[in-house]
Each structure stands twice: as structure tokens, then as C-alpha cells.
Design a protein that fits this description.
It is a single chain. The chain is mainly alpha-helical and about 550 residues long. The protein folds into 2 domains: about 1-305, Rossmann fold; about 450-553, Arc Repressor Mutant, subunit A (Orthogonal Bundle), CATH 1.10.10. The chain is about 45% helix and about 10% strand. It is built from 22 helices and 14 strands. It has helices spanning about 10-20, 45-60, 105-120, 130-135, 140-150, 150-165, 175-180, 250-260, 275-285, 320-325, 330-335, 350-365, 375-385, 400-410, 415-420, 425-430, 430-440, 455-460, 465-475, 485-500, 510-525, 535-550, and strands at about 25-30, 65-70, 125-130, 200-205, 215-220, 225-230, 235-240, 245, 265-270, 300, 300-305, 345, 385, 390. Helix 12 (about 350-365) crosses helix 13, helix 14 (about 400-410) crosses helix 17 (about 430-440) and helix 20 (about 485-500) packs across helix 21 (about 510-525). It is elongated and about 105 Å long.
């Protein structure tokens, strides 16, 4: 028996086990700031870690997928579509900013919930933690004091990387440089600032709740930290007894790795550039917090219809819940697992969706043959099921292009679609709903099919004998109960019959020319267009009676 194929998931799981040590629980971690709609670009953060955790579960290795909500991050800017008055909340924790839509407890919670619903639909289960809860409860207090005590060591590492960072954009691609400029870590290390201004702990003002604060003094013995606020406030907080702020991002991340004993955590390429929070964190976790850096790799960007990098704050970028309206959950998972994480790719909700379903169905057929198990099949296995079991899939697999074409012709009537393809609605789910949503939301109205209300009498009256023969042969061959294979054979075979050939004869060049003319005639008579959905599908959708009526009986 051949060896099992090895992919990037296998290798990452091996690295995580080595980091944790044989026989010990493995912690793999993801994290995201719920500052806006979590788009499909961010989904690589969740799915990359999920696939590694799932591989470990399949092996029987104790593992936890730890997901960190960075909801104690500052609210940075007011996005498009939100009342400009929300500028007053800039600098406050995301968990302290009210929900403008009044449906959740905070800004952060508003953007967590729809993402969690989508992740659940994709079979992703995580142990979630809130940085707001961790900091405000004092759970990180010892780690904060440790970081502050080593602030000079931290500053030495940060200072060394600042010089490298200034030159970095020249060596980066345009995409990576843009991401680096948008990185939340970029405003942590301004040049020309004092040691206190570079203090590794940032207080949230006791009066206004913002982080527009400047440390004015710190006493190592008492752990009293004095600060002023940009809004005119001044306070003193005690780091050993009070919880009124957080570590700077470049220090917070390695602190968390050590505190949670993280064995594997990947990062986007923007975090993997010189001087970024990730490269700095790798040094700090070992030098300050005394733990080996986690196993990791950088992952590339995911774009949408040619867009280079999605931005959560810009709005409009598609999310997982958007994608799941038109893609079955295993297919969305497959888009991420089938590629090496460093590869960039785009997700297109246009005609590419039809080809994607065809490719998925073909791969599923290949996966049914144990002798054909390779890296492609391994990716299908990881996408179609988790260690807990298979994800929802249709009981009867009907090609997406057929269901979507029928949905187009029938204006999305589920019962009509079911009748035409010959299977109960419940056996076609969830694909049926995806096809109806895709047809209504992503097919250009100009490409929709409009069936004639009545026969085109002028065209019918102008037909020559050959064309009349084609229509007669088609109508004579149609049964009352239509079957797709039979209709396909008949539609393509009418020009053969007209030339005295059999339906299954190989078409000659003359027959091919006749087929092209015959198909054009059918489109004009049925949908008043030069083209449309596949003719067998169209005939199935219209039914024998309506086809007879439009073709002149």
C-alpha cells in the first residue's frame, strides 16, 4: 500500500507536536480584532489553524484551538456608513464602543456573532478568549509587571528593528508594503520619542476611557504609573493592583504565546515582514517571557475578483457568510486547504462559481477510488469532513450548472427545479439554495433568461423546409415525461436525423454546422436571444407542452 500523501497541514501538525513535546497537549492559536466585518481574507487566520487542529484530532493528539478576540484593541477610525459622531469613541476599547446598530452589547460583539455563525457552519470549533476579560480581570497582571520590569530589554529589541523596518518597503512587493502600512503595529514605534513614550504598557484613561495617554513617570518599587490624557486628564494607576490598560501590541502577542503555551500560530505576510509584530515577538517571547517561539509560517493574501488586499474597515469586502450563500461549506473550506498557505488567490463569485462546483464534483468522484488517493484527494477529505464527521452535502449530487440554469429559467422556484431535475427538494439541499441565491444575486440581469410569452409567429412563418424538419423531429421526439439524458441526445441529434443518420452517430462537419444553426433557431424561438442556458436544460425547464406551444405545435 502506498504511503499516505503529506501536505502543508501534515507538516504544520508535526511542527506543533515537536514544539509541545510528545504526549503533551498541543495549543494552536488564531486571533483577530473584531473591528469590522471579518472578510474572506481574514478567514485564512481561522482556517489555517483549524486544519492543523483537525489533523491533530484525527491523530488522537490532545489539542485545543485557542482563538483570541483582540476586543481590547483601540477603536481606530469611523468606517463608511457609521455616524461621524462615533469619532468620539476613537481610542476606546472595541468592547467599550456602543453598537451603532443597537443589536449587540458593543461594537466588538456586533462583528463577532455573524462570523461565529459562519465558522460553526464550516465545522470550526474553537476555545474563545476575550482580551478585554483577560486584562480587566487582572489575569495578565504578573505578565504586565514582568514586561514593564524588562522594558529596557524590550526597547533594545524594538530599536534594533526600527532601522530595518525603515528600509523594508523597498524589498517588499507592492501588496506586502501596503499591508505593512496598514498594520496595527506600525504606530507603536515612532522615531524621536522618549523612553516613557515608548513604555510597553498603555493605560486607558480612567476618566474618558481612551488610550490617548502619555506615561509621565513610573516607580519600579511601588509600581505606580502616572500619565496624562490628550483630553486634559491626569491619573496614577498601580500596575500591581489595578487593571486600566494593556501591553503594546508587539509585547502583548509574545506575552500571550508564553501565557497560553502556544505551540503553533501562523501570521499574515504583513506580520512576517522585518520589524513587524511577529518578528519582534519571536525575540521577546524567548528573551523576556522565557518560552521558545511557536512554530509558524506566513500566509498570503486572499483577494476578491482581482482586489489585491481586502480591508475590514473599508467595507464591502465579502465575508464568510456572504460566501456561504453560494458555496457549500466544504467547497469554501477547500479553497483554503488545497493551496500552500503562502500562495495568494482570489475568490470570484461570478461565472467561476460554476466551474468551481464542476471541479469539486469531479474531485469527489476521484476520491471514491482508494487507488487514486493523492494530495488532491487529501485536500478534498480535509474540506469535506472534520474529525467529528462529514459536513452537510446534498444526498443527490446534481451539477450546479444544471440547477442554476433551471433556477434561472424558472425564476428560482424550488418545486419546479425539483420537478425538472427529478429529485426531491430535500435531496438537493444545500446546493439548491446556493444555486438559487447565486442566480439571483450574482448573475448579471443582462445574462438572465427571459422565456417568450407567446410564439414568434413571424419567425415561424419564415422557416424553410429544412428548419421545419428540424422542429418537427424535435417535437416528435419529446416525451411528456422528460429525462435529461434523452433530451440532450435528441437536441444534439436532430440535425443527424435530418440527414438520415442515427442519434449516436459521430457528427460530421456538415452536421456540426447544422447544429449551430439549429441551436440559434431554438434560442430565438424560445427566449428571443442569440444564446442562453444549455438547450437540454432549457427544454427540461420549459416542459414539453410549453416547448410545443412556442415552436408552433
Amino acid at each position: 500500500m502506498s504511503a499516505s500523501p503529506t501536505d502543508w497541514v501534515t507538516r504544520a501538525a508535526d511542527d506543533a507536536i515537536r514544539h509541545a513535546g510528545e504526549g503533551r497537549q498541543v495549543t494552536v492559536s488564531s486571533g483577530v480584532s473584531p473591528s469590522g466585518r471579518v472578510h474572506l481574507g481574514n478567514m485564512r487566520e481561522f482556517l489555517t489553524v483549524h486544519f492543523v487542529a483537525d489533523e491533530l484530532r484525527r491523530r488522537g493528539v490532545p489539542v485545543r484551538h485557542l482563538h483570541v478576540w483582540d476586543d481590547y484593541d483601540r477603536f481606530r477610525k469611523v468606517p463608511v456608513g457609521v455616524d461621524p459622531s462615533y469619532a468620539e469613541h476613537i481610542g476606546r476599547p472595541l468592547s467599550a464602543v456602543p453598537d451603532p446598530w443597537d443589536c449587540h452589547a458593543s461594537w466588538a460583539e456586533h462583528f463577532k456573532e455573524p462570523l461565529l455563525d459562519a465558522l460553526h457552519a464550516m465545522g470550526i470549533e474553537m476555545e474563545e478568549i476575550s482580551q478585554t476579560e483577560r486584562y480587566t480581570s487582572g489575569l495578565y497582571r504578573e505578565q504586565v509587571l514582568l514586561a514593564v520590569a524588562h522594558r529596557h530589554d524590550i526597547e533594545a529589541v524594538l530599536a534594533r528593528y526600527r532601522t530595518k523596518k525603515a528600509a523594508a518597503p523597498e524589498t517588499l512587493s507592492e501588496q506586502e508594503a501596503a499591508a505593512l502600512a496598514d498594520s496595527p503595529a506600525d504606530d507603536e514605534d515612532p522615531e524621536g520619542t522618549t523612553e516613557l513614550e515608548r513604555f510597553p504598557f498603555k493605560p486607558y484613561c480612567r476618566t474618558c476611557g481612551r488610550d490617548t495617554t502619555t506615561v509621565t513617570s513610573y516607580d519600579d518599587e511601588s509600581t505606580d504609573l502616572a500619565y496624562t490624557c490628550g483630553y486634559g486628564h491626569a491619573h496614577t494607576t498601580n500596575l500591581a493592583t489595578q487593571n486600566e490598560g494593556k501591553l503594546a501590541w508587539k509585547v502583548d502577542w509574545p506575552m500571550r504565546w508564553a501565557f497560553e503555551h502556544v505551540d503553533f500560530e501562523p501570521a499574515g505576510m504583513d506580520h512576517a515582514t522585518p520589524g513587524s509584530s511577529f518578528t519582534v515577538g519571536h525575540e521577546l517571547v524567548e528573551k523576556v517571557f522565557g518560552m521558545p517561539r511557536p512554530a509558524w509560517f506566513g500566509y498570503g493574501f486572499v483577494g476578491f475578483a482581482g482586489v489585491q488586499k481586502m480591508s475590514s474597515s473599508a467595507g464591502g469586502a465579502p465575508t464568510a457568510e456572504d460566501a456561504l450563500r453560494v458555496l457549500e461549506a466544504p467547497i469554501l473550506r477547500w479553497l483554503y486547504v488545497r493551496r500552500n498557505p503562502k500562495q495568494t488567490f482570489d475568490i470570484d463569485f461570478g461565472p467561476e462559481v460554476v466551474r468551481l462546483y464542476d471541479e469539486w464534483d469531479s474531485l469527489a468522484r476521484k476520491a471514491s477510488d482508494p487507488d487514486k488517493r493523492d494530495l488532491q484527494v487529501l485536500a478534498w477529505e480535509r474540506a469535506s469532513a472534520t474529525a467529528a464527521g462529514p459536513l452537510p452535502a446534498p444526498r443527490v449530487v446534481v451539477p450546479f450548472r444544471l440547477i442554476s440554469s433551471v433556477a434561472d429559467v424558472t425564476a428560482g422556484k424550488a418545486t419546479e427545479i425539483s420537478r425538472i431535475v427529478g429529485h426531491p427538494v430535500e435531496d438537493l439541499q444545500p446546493r439548491l439554495d446556493k444555486a438559487m441565491a447565486w442566480t439571483s444575486e450574482y448573475v448579471d440581469p443582462a445574462d438572465r433568461t427571459t422565456v417568450r410569452e407567446s410564439p414568434d409567429e413571424a419567425t415561424l412563418a419564415s422557416l424553410d423546409d429544412r428548419q421545419r424538419t428540424w422542429l418537427r423531429l424535435l417535437l416528435d421526439g419529446l416525451d411528456e415525461q422528460l429525462q435529461l439524458d434523452a433530451v440532450t441526445s435528441l437536441v444534439y441529434g436532430v440535425p443527424k436525423l435530418a440527414r438520415g443518420m442515427a442519434l449516436d452517430d459521430k457528427p460530421t462537419d456538415a452536421v456540426k454546422a447544422d447544429q449551430k444553426e439549429f441551436f440559434g433557431l431554438l434560442y430565438r424561438l424560445l427566449v428571443d436571444a442569440e444564446r442562453g442556458p444549455r438547450l437540454p436544460t432549457l427544454v427540461m425547464a420549459l416542459g414539453t407542452e410549453r416547448v410545443r406551444s412556442l415552436l408552433g405545435g
